[in-house]
Amino acid sequence: MEPLVAEYENAHLLSTTLWSRKLTLCREGEVPSSKIYQAMEKLAALGLAEIQPTRPKLYSALPGDEVVNRIVEISRHRAEQFSKQAEKLKVTLGAHPERVRGRKAFVDLALGVESHVKRHMTHLTTARKRIWSYLEHGDLTAIDSLTTGGFPILRRIARNTTEHKIDHRVVFGFTYQTAPQLVSFLRKHRAHMEQVTGVRYSGELGHPFHVIDDDLVILSLDHPFIREGRFASLLVRDQELAQKLAEGFQELWSKAMRNLREIDFHPGVSPKLGSRSASGS
């Protein structure tokens, strides 16, 4: 009888001790008591704890150095696996067309003539390599309006072009109806056009734009129902778009006229407009 009582007391003591340790683990590990055995099984599966196959199961911690080394080993293995999967993902995404891959770009919308010039065209005054512009009557009206109103955008662009030796080329698009406006603009602003490294002339395309350096584009928006013509513009920072428009500009530049006298319409251009500043190079 006494051995049975002693065995019961020992079992009760062991049970009480295990329960006390369980509560300590739950409290210090911030693990719900209902999840503690599941957590210990996971630690054992990772090699961070040992299981003693008794009834009930007992768990014991490994020495601190062994735990740290095991964690480092697990982390290294997972990093290697992640790196392999990332390479596979890179190849998979690279195989998709550009329209599926997509790309990140900064876009800003300016509404109205004043915002177009003061918010977007001011970027022409900070260019460091190139300014390639295709301009139409809406651009001439906008620039002339703001210049008359006391915002000398052309003078600031000319100063920056001279200071940093910018490759500044302009193609003016015009029709027979807008040619007089173009000639008037060139005469009025001749002093600030002398810093432009090349000017040429082409038939109107309907899509004015500026390419600034390697990654900045200004797309101008006009509409015949808007009295000023220019109602908005988009400022886009995207290297790929800038490259495509630059290629289009170069093609346009190669075909554009060097002098307004190359067409049948003679809007009374003065001899001085045949100089380098107006005829281009």
Q: CATH architecture of the largest domain, please? A: 2-Layer Sandwich
Work out the radius of gyration. 37 Å
The proportion of residues forming helix, as a percent range, comes to 40-55%
String of helices and strands? HHEEHHEHEHHEHHEEEEHH
Describe this structure in words.
The chain has 281 residues and is α+β, with helices and mostly antiparallel strands. The chain has two domains: 61 residues, Arc Repressor Mutant, subunit A (Orthogonal Bundle); 158 residues, 2-Layer Sandwich (Endonuclease, Chain A), CATH 3.30.870.10. 50% of the residues lie in helices and 19% in strands. The strands form two sheets. A seven-stranded mixed sheet has the order 3-9-8-7-4-5-6. A two-stranded antiparallel ribbon has the order 1-2. The longest helix has 31 residues. It starts with a helix and ends with a helix.
Task: Give me a quick take on this structure.
Helix content is 50%, strand content 19%. It has helices at 2-29, 36-45, 64-94, 98-101, 113-120, 137-148, 153-164, 179-188, 190-193, 239-255, 276-279; strands at 49-52, 58-61, 106-111, 130-135, 167-174, 198-203, 209-212, 216-222, 230-237. It has a 7-stranded mixed sheet. The chain has a two-stranded antiparallel sheet with strand order 1-2.
Keywords:
Endonuclease, Chain A; 11 helices; 281 residues; disordered N terminus; two-stranded antiparallel ribbon; alpha+beta; Arc Repressor Mutant, subunit A; 2 domains; disordered C terminus; seven-stranded mixed beta sheet
